[in-house]
Amino acid sequence: MVQSSLFAAYFAATQPVEQGALPQDVQPRPSGAIIWAICASPDHRRVMDTLCSRLSDDGEVVTIVSTLASPKHPDVSTTPNTRHTTRAFLQHWQPQLILWVGGQLDLAVAFEISKSDIPAVMIEADSAQIAKTPGRHVPGLLRQCLQSFAEILLIDDADIPKLLKAGANPDTLRAIGVLDDAVAPPACDDAVRSSITAHLGARQMWLAADIPMAEVATIAAAYRHAARRAHRTLLIVTPRRGKDTKAMADAFRKDGLSTACRHRGEYPKDATQVYLSDTDEGLGLWCRLSSITYLGGSLSDGITPDPFVPALVGSAVVAGPRHEAHKTHFHRLLTAGAIKQVSTLDDLGAAIEDLLATDLAALQAHAAWDVTSQGADATNDLMSVIYTYLDQVNT
Known about the structure:
14 strands; seven-stranded parallel beta sheet; 395 residues; Rossmann fold
């Protein structure tokens, strides 16, 4: 990317609050190859963790340093957002390859990367996000930025015309599909599962997973709505916080619902309508037992379980409009029609009723399985790209 007076004036006028400065106690650069992965979301970072494991399995001595713009955990580095902090980051880590993983572009960071002559590859490039890049209206700046990438790898071909219009070099554009983040099926104790199945028999079940207290009334109303057609259905509830179990049980009972609690050693009886579990068995057990899983928090604060967890074990997913915690996975499932999304509190009961009364749950679960099983080929393709650039460095 060639600097011009126009570009220099833009960068000088843009003075964000500096972030991503290296801490004084930053760890020394490890030996071997370094890949810097600039991740747009925690989901993208998980993709990079999976990629690192795959490279290690192949015997490669590679360290992937992943950064996020706003990390919520102290063990995750913050992505630099100025030319100064980017330059310091590059000088310390001395990466052999840079991966820009999803999201918008930061033109100041991309500019500094281009000056370093380190090859940079954009993966899961999203034209809608790139179109929101700050500074894109400066003539030629976005074009020069896009043309500084050695390769731009997309999920599908639909984004290619838009990126060409934005100024990308056509020789660098290629669709490889969505990358694999290797979300493992949740663990389940088969003996416990068999025991509960024996107690429950053929009763239909649906799961309300990781429910906050704020959603208890909504879940109770949804149960009553769905039970008008599925009279013997059993609602499994896992509280977000174990200490809320007693208050939840009291609330369900006050609403007139027969409630049993697993932490007290109780099993559901024929008349039990709600079964509360705050034990350490996790969602793996309950998602496998339930044909439908509602993701708690998606109708309130947006703090939800990963929708891939129930999808991986064949439970149809129902969720509200709030899904900040796992945006990428929600988007993939929604695009494939593999989530039943509800807009309001009142819609939840009708959605559960429809899925219980028809074969829609099985069709939706099948669509979700297709989504969660994708990605291996794209990841293999990306690994080949990485080997190409690392080999060039080593020769």
